[in-house]
Amino acid sequence: MILSVNDINFTNIKRDEALSILRRGGPKVQLLIRRLSPPITKKIDIEQHDGKLGITLKGGIGTQFYPNDHGIFITNACRQQTGTQLEIGDRLLEIASTKKQYDLRFVTRVCAIKRIELACKESQKVTISVGRAKRIIPVQNQKSDSCVNELNSNDTKNKDTSKVHVGTQYATTNGIRNERKLCNTSGNYSHELLTIQQGQSYAIK
Q1: Which structural domain, as residue segments, surrounds residue 156?
Q2: Residue 19 lies in a domain
Q3: CB atoms within 10 A of CB 46
Q4: Which of 88, 143, 175, 205 has the highest count of CB atoms within 10 angstroms of its CB?
Q5: Strand partners, 194
């Protein structure tokens, strides 16, 4: 989601106006974007649940827990019911009984609860698929309070793909350096500041 372009608010803007601003951006365009932090997907087996999972859910279509996100999230979990496997903040993706699978994505909260109840009635063992945000690991620059992590697109020797760094990344393409800065994280979101030079393209994934 694009939040701003060259400090112009893009959260409630029409498509044509947004395109016009991007075209008038000049030799350097700076975008502030928000994206979901990279998820970790886990499958968790729960047995002898006595018909209840002991979790509190929020979110879903029409009752979003996070702005512009239709996910169903766990906001409270009874450890006696679920053990220590389910965590507060988990995004529910699917629940499966021994007979049937139920999709919990892009549904209302009421629909999600009904599907969970159905799965629990069908068998004493259910498997829940959840998504978790990866922990963001800050890398502090010793000379200042800013976070810095330089990365050349041709240099793959020192890449550590197991970690997500808060900081600034520089990708050099055809001799022109573009800047990508991970500013902060909030809940399941991360904010990135992209600076793109004229004549260069950047795919927002």
Answers
A1: 33-37+136-197
A2: no
A3: 19
A4: 88
A5: 31, 180
